[in-house]
Design goal:
- By secondary structure, this protein is of the alpha/beta class.
- It has a domain at about 65-220: Vaccinia Virus protein VP39 (Rossmann fold, 3-Layer(aba) Sandwich), CATH 3.40.50.150.
- It is built from seven helices and nine strands; from the N terminus they run αααββαβαβαββαβββ.
- A seven-stranded mixed beta sheet has the order 5-4-3-6-7-8-9. The chain has a two-stranded antiparallel ribbon with strand order 1-2.
- Helix 2 packs antiparallel against helix 3.
C-alpha cells in the first residue's frame, strides 16, 4: 500500500500546531540568541508535530525535548537551532552544498532541518524501530535527499566518506577516531562531549591532520552508546 502524503492541513497544523504557534517558537529562539535567519526559516518550515507521537503533538512547538520511545528524545528546538547554526555558520566552503553525516537520527526531526542545507544527509541510527519511523516520516514530509542507515554510529559511514559536515546527537567522553578520519579537509564536526552533568557542545574543524576545537555551550545529551539495538 502506498504511503499517504501529508495534506496541507497536516503540514501546517491546526490549533496548538498552527503556523501562529510555530511563529511563537521562532520568536523564542530569536530571543535566546539564534540570529541565523536561514536556520530559523528552515525550522519554521519543518512540521515538528509530525515527528512526535500524536498524544504529544500539542506540545510539539514548545522549546523542550520530548520522549520518542526507546529511552530517546526529540531534541529541544533551541539545541537543534544552535547545532545547525554551528554546523553551517560562516561563508560556504566550496561551490556545492556539503555532504553531511548525522549520527543519531532519532525520529528524523534534526535530519529534516539539516536537509535544505545539504547536498545529501547520511544519517546513522542504532535503534531499528527509530530507523523505520524516521524513514516513514521523512518520506511523508517530502524530504528526499536523505539516506537513513541502521548501524553503529561510532564508526560513522565509511563507504560515503569524506563528509564536509558531521553532527552527533549523543555525548561521549571523547570524539570517536572514525568520525575524525571521515571529516573532509576544512570540514566541521559538531558534537557534545563529556560525562552526564558536565557536557559541552564542541565544534571541531579539520586542517590537514590537525583538529581545532571551539566550545559553544553547556548541553545535556543522552550518552553515545556503541553497538546496535532492536
Amino acid at each position: 500500500m502506498a504511503e499517504a502524503a501529508v495534506t496541507p492541513v497536516e503540514q501546517v497544523g491546526v490549533g496548538m500546531t498552527s503556523a501562529r504557534t510555530r511563529d511563537r517558537l521562532i520568536d523564542r529562539l530569536r530571543a535566546q540568541g539564534i540570529s541565523n535567519e536561514l536556520v530559523l526559516a528552515h525550522m519554521r518550515s519543518v512540521p515538528r508535530h509530525l515527528f512526535v507521537d500524536e498524544a504529544l503533538a500539542s506540545r510539539a512547538y514548545e522549546d523542550t525535548a520530548l520522549p520518542i520511545g526507546h529511552g530517546q528524545t526529540i531534541s529541544q528546538p533551541f539545541v537543534v537551532a544552535m547545532m545547525t547554526d554551528a554546523l553551517f555558520e560562516g561563508p560556504d566552503q566550496g561551490e556545492k552544498p556539503p555532504r553531511v553525516l548525522e549520527i543519531g537520527t532519532g525520529c528524523g526531526y534534526q535530519t529534516a532541518v539539516l536537509a535544505p542545507f545539504a547536498r545529501h544527509v547520511y544519517s546513522v541510527e542504532r535503534i531499528l524501530p527509530l530507523v523505520e519511523r524516521a524513514q516513514r516520516t521523512l518520506r511523508k514530509v517530502g524530504v528526499h535527499n536523505v539516506s537513513v542507515r541502521y548501524a553503529d554510529g561510532w564508526h560513522g559511514w565509511r563507504s560515503q566518506a569524506p563528509f564536509q559536515r558531521i553532527i552527533v546527537a549523543a555525548a561521549s567522553a571523547g570524539v570517536p577516531r572514525d568520525l575524525l578520519d571521515q571529516l573532509d579537509e576544512g570540514g566541521r564536526l559538531v558534537i557534545p562531549v563529556g560525562k552526564h552533568g558536565a557536557q559541552v557542545l564542541a565544534c571541531i574543524t579539520r586542517t590537514g591532520e590537525q583538529f581545532s576545537r571551539r566550545i559553544i555551550a553547556d548541553v545535556s545529551f543522552v550518552p553515545f552508546v556503541p553497538g546496535m539495538a532492536r
